Amino acid sequence: MTLIGLTGGIGSGKSTIARRLAEHGAHIVDADQIAREVVEPGTPALAEIIAHFGAGVLNSDGSLNRSALGEIVFTDETQREMLNSIVHPAVHRRTSELFAQAPVGSVVVYDVPLLVEANSRYSFDAIVVASAPESIRVERLMEHRGMLESEALSRIQSQAPEEERLKIANHVIDTSGNINHTYAQVDALWNQLANID
């Protein structure tokens, strides 16, 4: 198995890169999806969250109310650390299971927005960073997610600075051009990745 870390700040075009790699046959493991999955109703992680934070963090259907939980953890470092100590091990276990299920000899792409922030314990064969100037990322967030400019900037600035991501990159995909420009770089990257032993 070849393990590739794919990261990039919000609005950087990371999902576009992941989709193109999947079209080439890469096995995509999505960190955001796993983080949602491990706190679904009936999971041990959700039970721990309720035990610590109380039933006020639940919706009426028993699912996690992310905004209610967010109000608690984003204003209190200790509470955020407590949440991370519950969720991160569950995500790590599930991620390891999914890596193990990948077909032998496959290229596995771990799509993880906060790779720099998370101090990942995986041993990557390569790290790919989606990169675009902040102004373009702000435009994308306003256009595709309906954010105000101030909201988009705030979301971008709450993540690791671009320089931190670029420091850990083996490959940088410049997504500031059109989709074909991005695809051409991803296609060239795939040809390299497919030949990593």
Describe the overall structure.
The protein is an alpha/beta fold and 197 residues long. It is 54% helix and 13% strand. The protein has two domains: 1-26 and 106-197, Rossmann fold; 36-104, no CATH class. The chain has helices spanning 14-23, 31-37, 44-53, 66-73, 77-101, 115-118, 134-145, 149-157, 162-168, 179-193, and strands at 2-7, 27-30, 107-111, 126-131, 171-174. Strands 2-3-1-4-5 form a five-stranded parallel sheet, with helices on both faces. The radius of gyration is 18 Å and the shape is globular.
| End-to-end gap | 9 Å
Strand content: 5-15%
Topology pattern, helix = H, strand = E: EHEHHHHEHEHHHEH
CATH superfamily of the largest domain: P-loop containing nucleotide triphosphate hydrolases
Shape: globular
Tally of distinct domains: 2
Q: What Rg do the Cα atoms give?
A: 18 Å
Q: How large is the count of helical segments?
A: 10
The biggest sheet amounts to: 5 strands, parallel
What top-tier CATH class of the largest domain fits best? Answer: Alpha Beta
- Structural class, by secondary structure, is alpha/beta
Attribute tags:
globular, Rossmann fold, 54% helix, 10 helices, 197 residues, five-stranded parallel beta sheet
Summarize the structure.
By secondary structure, the chain is an alpha/beta fold.
Question: Topology, please?
Answer:
Layout: E1 2-7, H1 14-23, E2 27-30, H2 31-37, H3 44-53, H4 66-73, H5 77-101, E3 107-111, H6 115-118, E4 126-131, H7 134-145, H8 149-157, H9 162-168, E5 171-174, H10 179-193
Parallel strand pairs: 1-3, 1-4, 2-3, 4-5
Helix pairs in contact: 1-10, 7-8
